[in-house]
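Structure Section — protein described below
Tokens — whole-number codes for backbone shape
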Amino acid sequence: MSNLEARVRAEQLRLLFKSPISFLGSAATAAVAAAVLGGRIDAWLLLSWAGLTLAWLGGRAVLWLWFRRETSDQALIARWSWRAVGIMAASGILWGLFGAAFYLPADPEFSAFMILVVASMLAGGAFMYAAYLPAYYAFIVCCTLPIAAAAFQHGTPSSIVFGLMTLAYLASMLGMGRTMNRSIVKMIGLRFANADLVANLRQAKETAEIASRVKSEFLATMSHELRTPLNAVLGFSEMIQAGTSGPIDAKYRAYAADIHSSGEHLLALISDILDISKIESGRLDIHDDRASLADIMPRCLRLIAPRAAEGELALIERLPPDLPDVIVDEVRIKQALINLLSNAVKFTPAGGRIEVSARTAEDGGVEIAVADDGIGMRPEDVPVALEPFRQLDSRLARPYEGTGLGLPLAKRLIELHGGALVIDTAPERGTRVALRLPPERVIRRGPAAFSASAAD
């Protein structure tokens, strides 16, 4: 038996013994039957049956309490498989003896009452015991066969017909119980499958989070360790360029310039990796202060202008005169904006244009946008472009260099400010990327602000 089958069997037995209603209902039915039949049939026979039945039901109560003490242990529950069959068989025999003893063809009233009592017990058993099919079969068969045998023994035409009807009723009850059991087992299996799936997903999520945290911590440590010797490389290459230790020829000066340029590129890459790893591990803090976008954006454009000129690109700036100041980490906002500008320069062919704009949004926030008429991308590729270290073109010989950190880092930096990064793009039509700051980061201009300024 597989682990799943064992769990299903244990759950079937739990459902079978879940509630004391079955034997409490049987006790109530036995008491009512004894009260109705009292004084009309042999008292010794009735009291013997009623006493035996109530004593057995008391024993079932003890067994029920015993089972409840073992219900948390799956191995112990498995031992109850045959006990359950025996318990249900004994219960069925007691009700079968009731029907066999008190079925009197000559007294239709007694017979009708007996049929009503036994039929109610069988119907209740179909719902109470169908969870575990062997126990259900034991109860149904042991309850109906004695009644059918007693009917055939009477030998009258009506009793023989009743016996045949009892056997037909037995067959239908067995079929109905099998159908109900299949539904119950299927439901239990689905419940366990769903529980296992949820547990596996939770474990996979926890494992992925641990792996991501370890990766981020490793990247942060390695980035820090790499920056120290790299700063030395940059410093010595500057000294060589400047000829601090003595004159050098133009060829070696050019080599030093290439070393310095490559070192700066590597330092920028390491800084991006360090920042993205700090963000993912929750260790990057922002330092808010009042800042002017009217000052930040032109400075970013001046930094990117040489690369734009080299690529024969037009840089256009559109800033409204009433652009409000904001409360941000100026260094991080500049970093995000430069990343967007670098991407625009990289993916815009010669002769193209890049437009940088800012405006006050309808909700009171501020939107900074970088739009180009470059190659663009498909909308379904946007989620990939926003994942760290992902490239839409993963070939080694791809025409565009880079590590795939520009957009993801800009997105995370703006999200640290409570904002959002929004991309509108289409192939061969260009890309517009907007950084949206929430209203609470905008400094409103009004009479109070002007009076405060005048007081200063």
Strands lie at 289-291, 314-318, 326-328, 353-360, 366-372, 420-426, 430-437. The chain has three domains: 3-202, 205-280, 289-441. The domain at 289-441 is CATH 3.30.565.10 (Heat Shock Protein 90).
